[in-house]
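Consider the following input, taken from an annotated entry for Putative PIG3 family NAD(P)H quinone oxidoreductase (Maricaulis maris).
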Amino acid sequence: MIEIAKTENRIVIAREPGGPDVLEIVTRPVPVPGPGELLIRNVACGVNRPDQIERLGFYPAPPGAPEGLGLEVAGHVAELGAGVSAFAVGDPVCALVAGGGYADFSVAPAGSVLPVPDTVAVADAAGLPETVFTVWTNVFEIGALSRDETFLVHGGTSGIGSTAIQMAKAAGARVIATAGTPDKVTQCKALGADIAINYRDEDFQTVVTEAGGADVILDMVGGAYVQKNINCARMGARIVSIAFLTGSRVEVDLMRVMLKRITLTGSTLRARSLAEKARLAAAVRDTVWPWIAAGKLAPLIDSRFALDDVRSAHERLDSGAHAGKILLDC
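Applying the prediction step yields:
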């Protein structure tokens, strides 16, 4: 099950900024876990928007991050570093990593590692860490979403969006989601969205306003959506930006922000300290893992590709046609 004797490790690098064709598989020695770390023999890894941005040259890895692309993995513990006692060799785990996730083996800080839930296949658990950590951080900690509030998420069938819909419903919120095709609208509703809006056919600002407005908004679009989010937000709303697919520089009417007492904020995850990520992992294990056990949350898998076919996986990501997570089988 665990190829501990293997001496070479395939990783994926971008030889220069560009499209999927710049991705290359190179071999490196199997990494050795340091104190407080563990080595994971990956079964699968997740493909995420930050990987695309890094490939394009706009998201450099933080100092000390492992070489190569990839921010989340799932597999089995292959080796324990000094001081790690919470896991044993062979345990099925998933982990948030700062880099090097597209690989046969990845090193992860023990604090960023979680056991694979019993109800999720190891190969599918690679679709959990990046999205769950991101949603927990931005929707529940920063956004402070609570039961019976209204939550609006854009890109409802993305990896983040599909996870956010399920987590918000599990927490007892009313959920509104936007998507770009009739099929994706249907998927949003199947995931639990109370209202799903095809933004190509309807103005989401009008629909959300008529539905009473939103208390928490998770935005990955940016651009013109920023002001529209402010316009349809409720009094005291929290708007959290985590990406800006249509632009990060915008002009907004701050008078509306003031009059509605809106909090407009944002965050990133990758560069946070190991201690902060460990704290987030503990919170996720305490609150979100029980939702998975209860059948309230499962990773939505769009497609799978072999690690050797990583360029096709990124072409799928670039197309925007995917619904749910894109995974690489290692």
